[in-house]
Amino acid sequence: MRRTRTAPPLGAAALLTAAALLTGCGDRPTTHHRPGTGHEVATAEAGRLLAAKDTDGHRLREVAAEGAPTVTLTARPDTEDGWNVQLGLQRFRFTPDSTGGAALPGSGHAHLYLDGREVGRLYGPWFHLPGRTVPRGARTLTVRLHADDHTVWAVRGTPVQGTAPLAPAAPAADPTRAAGAAPTPAPPRADRTVDITVTDGKVHPAPGRVELRKGQRLALGVTSDRADTLHIHGYDRKVELPAGQHVTYAFVADRTGLFEVETHESDLLLTQLVVR
Question: What's this model's pTM, rounded to 2 decimal places?
């Protein structure tokens, strides 16, 4: 009769080795982290997720005040355009190649806000803020630290962030003067100037009427928080409105009548022109 051989039982050491392979290091589950991230960092405490959210709807990730990351912010006018923003960081490092992954202690990226409106996402300590993206009258910059999973690092329920006033921009250099050429003549002065702001679908000041005499020149300034198109009915003038930029369009009111000025995409009435 043919006998079947059975394998000898596993020894205690072999069983322990197999168990370790299944469970990872010790009694912790294995943590998958990017190359170059030490096991101590990848398996360290990444804070406690709170139900509270920041102004943009990102949940807060609470960490102890001792050892928490900190950030300061400075903004210096650039000699050519806009501002150069610098972050001062402690116990925090940027990890752009891990964005979208799990939260790791003291790691992630930052969001930059101008008067509460997000203007950029930072993956390093320096950032250039172009002048064209800054609406007239803007005052305060805020930077907020995020984990790789886009939650916001927080201490005692408050986001880890820094703020700084926005200093006036440096005057732009005049290329015609640098080249020795004659300066470009200034445009004719407007008889009337109207400034309008569109924020969150609302028009400020409320739409009214602007009265002009035929032949007068109107300078119409519009700032919209969203990209749109300005349309002056009757004159069939269309002007692009980039988001957050102040655009001034000047023209001569050479037709009499009642004309509406509106935005195309958001379909908002901005004002009415009465030309007599």
Answer: 0.49
Rounded Cα distance between 81 and 132, Å, is: 9
Q: Could you read off the pLDDT of 120-149 as tens digits, one per residue?
A: 899 999 999 888 888 887 789 999 999 999
Report CA-CA distances (Å) from 149 to 24, 42, 45, 57, 71.
23, 14, 15, 13, 19
Asked if residue 205 has a cis previous peptide bond (ω within 30° of 0), the answer is yes
Task: Annotate 213-252 with b (16+ C-beta within 10 A) or e (fewer).
Answer: eeeebbbbbbbbbeebebbbeebeeeeebeebbbeebeee
The more confident residue out of 171 and 256 is 256
* CA 263/CA 229 separation, integer angstroms: 5
Distance CA 152, CA 147 (A): 6
Residue 262 CA: distances (Å) to CA of 132, 196, 226, 271, 274: 23, 11, 14, 7, 15
